[in-house]
Amino acid sequence: RREAAAVRRELDRLLRNWDVGAGQEPSPRLDSRALVREIAARSVRLSRCRREEQERALALILCDVSGSCSAVAPATLAACLAIAEARDDVVIVEHSNGWPEALYGATVRVPATATSTGDDCRHPWWDAVLRLRLSGVVALGDWDAGDVYQQIAALAPLVWLDSYAAKHGPRPASRILRTQAAGWARQPLSWWQGVSDARSCALALRAVKVT
């Protein structure tokens, strides 16, 4: 329980930093030049500008509960759910190697095929989630869901807590591990490996610097 509380504190710190605008593009209302360009080019309607300004960005927390992540899943999922109860801007996705199993927190619309099987059902589900306005994403899981994390990293700051090589303890992802994501459009904001329990999860989250 103490370790889960530590994870909850560090997650909340990270989400608060994202909540004040870390990683966000200036909205048209705040960026007068962008607004003028949009009006001149007629690229968007003013109603859409107003709607996007009023919408609150959501934070995604992705918890892999597959067998390879079973050591960390119970405590971190409990901490994530506690965060979701306290905040209305967090979406928790419980998944197994990228296959969605449950959704908690803020209400979002996703296809009815979320619990279906087959590759043709997996990615449309994530596409719907990734169309949300995101402030940032925390992914707790290994490379088995790497294709999902690649999509996410291109859209929002991604903190990846990877359970790979847990026996060596938590540490920033090695250069060898990072070569697997060399072709990604955008690298994770923070990527730690060896995160296999609540203690190492809290340690890795504490090391994330968001300015």
* End-to-end Cα distance: 30 Å
- Could you tell me the radius of gyration in angstroms? 18 Å
Largest sheet: 7 strands, mixed
Shape, principal axes of CA atoms: globular
Number of strands: 7
Structural class: alpha/beta
* Beta-strand share of residues: 15-25%
**How helical, in percent, are the residues?**
25-40%
In short:
This protein is of the alpha/beta class and 211 residues long. The protein has eight helices and seven strands. It has helices at residues 2-19, 32-41, 46-54, 73-86, 119-130, 146-153, 175-178, 198-206, and strands at residues 58-64, 90-96, 99-105, 134-140, 158-161, 171-172, 190-193.
What keywords describe this structure?
alpha/beta; 8 helices; 211 residues
Describe the protein's architecture and organization.
The chain has about 210 residues and is of the alpha/beta class. Helix content is about 40%, strand content about 20%. Strands 3-2-1-4-5-7-6 form a seven-stranded mixed sheet, sandwiched between helices. Strand 4, helix 6 and strand 5 form a beta-alpha-beta unit. The longest helix is centred in the N-terminal third of the chain and has 18 residues. The two termini are about 30 Å apart. About 10% of the residues have low confidence.
